[in-house]
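Researcher: Structure prediction, please.
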Amino acid sequence: MRDFRIETAGRALAAGVLLAAFSLGCASSEYTRAREQDRRLSARVNEALLAEFPGEAVEGRAHHGVVALLGEVKTEQGRSQAEAAACAVPGVARVNNMIMIDVEGSPSRTVGSSPVTGTPVIAARAETAPAP
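Model: Predicted structure follows.
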């Protein structure tokens, strides 16, 4: 009778280990599937942005249906057009537009919006004063 209990406990332990291994495999495949979906969505958004802005440095990166737009355009209208192009791609749930606007062709001054609050932000690099 005692051997039966030990044997049953051993089988239960083995079944538990197998169940845990299978559940980890499922989680891993879900993660892989989500990463692949993000990669495909990023590619579709980047195709739309390339069609809208050939030669511009603008890209989209997707994570669970949320697309972050990165890069630089010349006007606020271009920034809005990039957001509209990304929103039109099937599968995009939300767009975080972090595209910067090139002000007067100067890389030291850019205008954009805060990725956290969405409020306009102007960043200017401090100019060094000439030595006396």
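Model: Strands lie at 58-63, 66-73, 94-97, 100-102, 109-113, 120-124.
Researcher: Thanks, that helps.
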